[in-house]
Design goal:
Order of helices and strands of chain A: EEEEEEEEEEE
Strand content of chain A: over 45%
Number of helices of chain B: 0
Oligomer: heterodimer
Shape of chain B: globular
Distance between the termini of chain B: 40 Å
Shape of chain A: globular
Structural class of chain B: mainly beta
Number of strands of chain A: 11
Helix content of chain B: under 10%
Structural class of chain A: mainly beta
Largest sheet of chain B: 6 strands, mixed
Chain lengths: 113, 111
């Protein structure tokens, strides 16, 4: 148990669907992150939130829309995705500033048909 | 753009053997983390090193940060099947919160 939970664990959606990924951290951290992990590519940082404020948007297409209502919850809203968006989406949290240590959730395996 | 290169990308060895995984960059990092990721799960933090030349041990795993804080190595002694997984190194930039990840080393320990 890492203290970071993600739901759902698996998601299959069509290109016209709208879905949301949810992340919750129980560690009392003040920063949360979304990453994309694709086969044969390094982890790609998508978004960073500090105290609910977005501080990083790593040139992510607008079909991915993050939401951080409080420092414990993070959402990733998905709409009109493409098949190449299929990947493992990982949420992480950290307590800044402390050596950049990030704690990851188990991820959501997303398949776009 | 900072990059971290891990080598080898794939490694398959027999139980009981020793191995070393490398993580190299041309950039200086304020900290270096090693993670292990198992199939269907997120990465789990193993260790953080912050001082050039620092060595940390975690049971049979030995982590070293290069003197210039540009590279790191992970050495496993007497590997066991439970060590199987994807090992990721990640470099941190002080105060910037961003981690730069290597592409990973997929390690398989055969019984």
């Amino acid at each position: 148990e890492t203290g970071v939970t993600q739901t759902p664990r698996h998601l299959v959606m069509g290109m016209t669907n709208k879905k949301s990924l949810k992340c919750e951290q129980h560690l009392g951290h003040n920063a949360m992150y979304w990453y994309k992990q694709s086969a044969k590519k390094p982890l790609e940082l998508m978004f960073v939130y500090n105290f609910k404020e977005q501080t990083e948007n790593n040139s992510v297409p607008s079909r991915f829309s993050p939401e951080c209502p409080n420092s414990s919850h993070l959402f990733l809203h998905l709409h009109t995705l493409q098949p190449e968006d299929s990947a493992l989406y990982l949420c992480a949290s950290s307590q800044e500033p402390v050596n950049n240590e990030q704690f990851f959730g188990p991820g959501t395996r997303l398949t776009v048909l | 753009t900072q990059l971290l290169e891990q080598s080898p990308q794939f490694l398959s060895i027999q139980e009981g053997e020793n191995l070393t995984v490398y993580c190299n960059s041309s950039s200086v990092f304020s900290s270096l983390q090693w993670y292990r990721q198992e199939p269907g799960e997120g990465p789990v933090l193993l260790v953080t090193v912050v001082t050039g030349g620092e060595v940390k041990k975690l049971k049979r795993l030995t982590f070293q940060f290069g003197d210039a804080r540009k590279d790191s190595s992970l050495h496993i002694t007497a590997a066991q099947p439970g060590d199987t997984g994807l090992y990721l190194c990640a470099g941190g930039e002080g105060g910037a919160q961003k981690l730069v990840f290597g592409q990973g080393t997929r390690l398989t320990i055969n019984p």
